[in-house]
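Dear colleagues,

For the upcoming journal club I promised to circulate an example of a predicted protein-ligand complex. I picked one with magnesium ion because it came up in last month's discussion. The inputs are reproduced below in full, followed by the predicted structure.
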Amino acid sequence: MSTSKSAFVFDNTFARSLEGFYIPVDGHQVPNPRMLHINEALATELGLSTDFLCSENSVEILAGKVKPEDTVTLAQAYAGHQFGAFSPSLGDGRAMLLGEIIDINGNRRDLQLKGSGPTPFSRNGDGKAALGPVLREYLISEAMHAFGVPTTRSLAAVTTGENVFRETALTGAVLTRVASSHLRVGTFQFFAARGQGEQVQKLADYAIERHFPKLIDQPDRYLRFLQSVIAKQIDLIASWMSIGFVHGVMNTDNMTISGETIDYGPCAFMDTYRSDAVFSSIDEMGRYAYNMQPLILPWNLARLAECLLPLLNPNDKDAAIEVATTEINAIPQAYEKVWLEKFAAKLGIFHVTEEDKELIQELLEIMEAEKADFTASFRKLSGVLLGDENNFLAQFNTLSSAHEWLETWKARLKTENKAIDDHIKRMDTTNPIYIPRNDLVEEALTAAEVASDLNPFRKLLAVVSKPFDRQSGAERYEVGASADARPYVTYCGT
Ligand code: AMP
Ligand code: MG
């Protein structure tokens, strides 16, 4: 029997607990909301029936046109360092929190509309979103989830029936984003920058209760809170690196306390491996390049630690700074350990040793020199153990160094005394076959925008939602762009 509900039952712990952290807002009157795509699996997880979500009233709610009953809809306040410069007042300029839902596993999830119209935080923006970026976030966030990487999710994409104006007139759309919360490093910065220590403490208490409830009664809970966020973010960034993901806009307002990936603006997956890959048109200095992400990690978390100083030691600022500094300085080494584990798994290794770092680095260097495809190179490695070296070597222009590397790798695997099948399984559940390749993403978005054809989007979504399983008829989704293809450029304009 289905337990799915035919009503939204929202809770509002954020609104109740954190007065002053938000501004109540309503959506925007849009002419003709239409459901474009609904995430049935996620709806089930949330205990909501898809029939209900696709009803006229629900679609109007998900377009921001109608306010749901019995909830406080709101725009959250936050600040943030954007490309290193501090903006004290950002906030939800194009998003509105509908409320919280307890899912069928008992977890509290935020439902938020992105693109539902202007809020007091909109500054010069229109608060709206265009169809292309909405579908892009949908695709990439759902692929991330399928890879097993913590992320906000996408429940629904609706069109609004009005145009939004960027360089040209574009179809207006709204994304329903689901997150374990929308607390960001920048949420702490908003209050810390205003010297509102009591608010920072309230926020930390709320974040602990929501995300790390085991810490509630701990006397050193604020330090342990900082350590917990650090651990989650280390794992997240190492996961991004392991699948060749470049977030593109790792501002502190886009770094969550939950450890979920948030804000799919100018992000992209690498085809050809380049350690300094940048896709975003506005990231001219490469601040958020692929190989910079692990360096931005401690930088952003240091901003969080700064906000927490008065909580780490209310009486002795120097002592608080020392404690925080110790935590931040420990990040690179802790990160390297997680990175090593994740990449070793990609090579089929179970018991990681320090020397494996060299083995991985060597492969990455060869891949970079040879302009190999990141995803395909790792995926085809398992085939080598079944005697198919050619498929792997086909990723490389010249073969000798890749061939030599293979011999070292095979010798390394032998030291583990495991069955070949175990290594293969480890690799094939770690290295995806399919990623949302840039050319395919663009193709899907263009078909949706220009021809109102959602089929390429749906097909690509279906393929990347099972990224580790080979699917018949999906051959073209496996092929990387050629190394000589035009550089892929992404834009922020959601
Ligand atoms: P982002 O770069 O997506 O992380 O957004 C940074 C800030 O710009 C946030 O405060 C957003 O709410 C705001 N913003 C982005 N796009 C718009 C828009 N179309 N209208 C209003 N605010 C926006
Ligand atoms: Mg953002």
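Two points we might discuss: The chain has 18 helices and twelve strands. Residues 216 and 461 are 40 Å apart (CA to CA).

See you all on Thursday,
B. R.
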